[in-house]
Amino acid sequence: MINDVSVIGLGKLGGTMAGCLASRGFNVIGVDVSQKAVNSLNAGHAPAQESGLDELIQQNKQRIRATLDHEDAILNTDLSFVIVPTPSDERGAFTIQYAAYAFEAIGKALAKREKYHTVVLTSTVLPGATRYGLLPILEKFSGKQCGKDFGLCYSPEFIALGTVIRDFLNPDFYLVGEFDERSGATLESVNSRVALNQAHSKRMSIENAELAKLSVNSFVTLKISYANMLADLCERIPGGDVDVVSDAIGLDKRIGRRYLTGGFGYGGPCFPRDNVALNFIGNYLGASTPLLEVNDNYNRTISPRFVDKLTPHLRKGATVAVLGLAYKPLSHVIEESAGIYLCLALSNKGFRVIGFDPLAREEANSALKMHALVSDSLPACLQDAECILVTTPDEMFKSLNPEECLLGKESVTIVDFWRCLPEVFHDHPKIQYIPVGRCTGNAGMASIETLRGLWAESTD
Ligand SMILES: NC(=O)c1ccc[n+]([C@@H]2O[C@H](COP(=O)([O-])OP(=O)(O)OC[C@H]3O[C@@H](n4cnc5c(N)ncnc54)[C@H](O)[C@@H]3O)[C@@H](O)[C@H]2O)c1
Q1: Catalytic site residue 270?
Q2: I need a labelling partner for 218 at 20 to 30 A (CA). Which of 157, 262, 336, 436 fits?
């Protein structure tokens, strides 16, 4: 039975996996090339920001240590998870140079190890990368043979930033791509002791697992885009309401309700790039993957379309508050975030933009620099705003009341992308409340006229 595991790469995902594995009784050696991450973990602190991680590591610090030395980890554990960055290149493919560097160090360590060791790649890669890009590095630097002297799996995680601990310990399933039976069985035995919910391991070839990981993310983005398209349709149909429609179609078991809440496009470090990368490999292999390209293009039009729609309704030089700068609530990550896009686009159009986010203040500050102010507090952000854009359904925004938005002003316009503000906003005399995905106010009247026109034409 395996009790000693290493985690190579102590970032947002790896750092959390180290804490979770220790919490399930494993002795964990964490490895990173960053002295800061290693020091943090050795001091009993989270090496990367993630909700609840500091506490989890504190509680389990007797079973965790960190090192800069890959060899120390490989010689003293029986299985390693490798979770290093795989950034996108200019073609949209994932590069494997960080993983190659880690595999070289692991290979050199395997050369000195007598016992069998299983290497598990967790980073997101394109089909073929594990077997044809990285395995040869392990065999070259170890001088050993995969399947005989060591094992190899590709096994990604399905987690969302902000809930990595819960997601890691309660997965729907474990995706295990195995080089051979022994590699897969070894990882499955570890997984069965990690899951709090008795999740099963779905075992398959390495290439099928590589494709399955990307397909999950890509399929979810299709669902999000579908909901955004429904929201756009609902805004043009009298009484249209995307929540009513999504609640209904979500009851169909073939569809399901999750990720069907129209509002804004998808962002963050995974969804956009995974979709693009799958399209890249599709094109490279000569497969027909136009859905992926259309989806990506559609998603990228959502924020610009909104800016075009909003601009004519704003006074020249008006102050606009953007609430939500991270790509989602409970996150400090601003990569591909709609809030940041809106700040930059509106500032470029000459509006005074002031943003606020409960967690992503520092990151937003450096991204927005001369374009927009980032406020330290919600009241300061709302102080002068004639227009307020609520871009994420953060608990802090959900509990706003009209007085906190008005602050003595005659009137204010509020665009609620996720329809998360309380009902008291809907008919407030001093607030023009615009819920994305609903057909209300003047748009409602106009939509009646448009539809009347269609049916009058067809009965003439
Ligand atoms: N963050 C997510 O939500 C998420 C979700 C699913 C999959 N992934 C995938 O997981 C991988 C890692 O993502 P992340 O968000 O944790 O990245 P990250 O940038 O937060 O962390 C990566 C860590 O790896 C370290 N590192 C780099 N090279 C190393 C080496 N040779 N040896 C040891 N450590 C090394 C870095 O110093 C850093 O601490 C990526 O492939 C990503 O696509 C991430």
Answers
A1: yes
A2: 436
Return the half-sphere exposure (C-beta side, CA atoms, 13 A cut-off) of residue 108: 9
Query: What separation in Å is there between the alpha carbon of 10 and the centre of ligand 1?
Result: 7
Determine the Cα–Cα distance for residues 357 and 342; give it in Å rounded to an integer.
Answer: 14
Taking only the tens place, the pLDDT of each residue in 101-149 is 999 999 999 999 999 999 999 999 999 999 999 999 999 999 999 999 9
83 CB within 6 A, ligand 1: yes
Overall average pLDDT of the 423-452 stretch: 90
**Does the CB atom of residue 157 touch ligand 1 within 6 A?**
yes
Q: Whose CA is nearest to atom 15 of ligand 1?
A: 12
Q: Measuring CA to CA, how many Å separate 37 from each of 93, 226, 370?
A: 27, 40, 31
Could you tell me the distance, in angstroms and rounded to a whole number, from the CA of residue 46 to the centre of ligand 1? 14
The pLDDT of residue 460 is above 70 = no
| 136-154 residue pLDDT tens | 999 999 999 999 999 999 9
What secondary structure letter does DSSP report for 94? Answer: B
Rounded to the nearest integer, the mean pLDDT of the chain is 95
Q: Is the dihedral of CA 385, 387, 390, 396 positive or negative?
A: positive
- Residue by residue, DSSP assigns 410-442 as S-EEEEETT--S-GGGTT-TTEEEEETTB--HH
Structural domains of the chain, with CATH = 4-199 (3.40.50.720), 314-436 (3.40.50.720)
CA distance 79 to 116: 9
Pairing of strands 201-205, 373-374: unpaired
174 within 8 A of 202, measured Cβ to Cβ: yes
Q: pLDDT tens across 323-377, in order?
A: 999 999 988 999 999 999 999 999 999 999 999 999 999 999 999 998 999 999 9
Q: Which two tokens stand for residue 286?
A: 């000569």
pLDDT for the residue numbered 450: 86
Catalytic residue, from 270, 343, 420, 439: name it.
270
| Residues whose CB is less than 8 angstroms from the CB of residue 287 and which lie 6 or more positions away in sequence, other chains included | none
Amino acid at residue number 385: A
Mean pLDDT of 209-234: 97
Give the gyration radius of the chain's Cα atoms: 25
Distances (CA, A) of 92 to 128, 210, 274, 307, 404: 16, 16, 9, 26, 44
Closest ligand 1 atom, CA of 47? 39
Q: Ligand 1, residue 123: give the atom nearest the CA.
A: 41
Closest CA to 398 of 417, 370, 372: 417
Query: What's the CA-to-centroid distance between 80 and ligand 1, angstroms?
Result: 14
Q: Does the pTM exceed 0.85?
A: yes
Residue 356 and residue 319 in contact, taking contact as beta carbons nearer than 8 Å = no
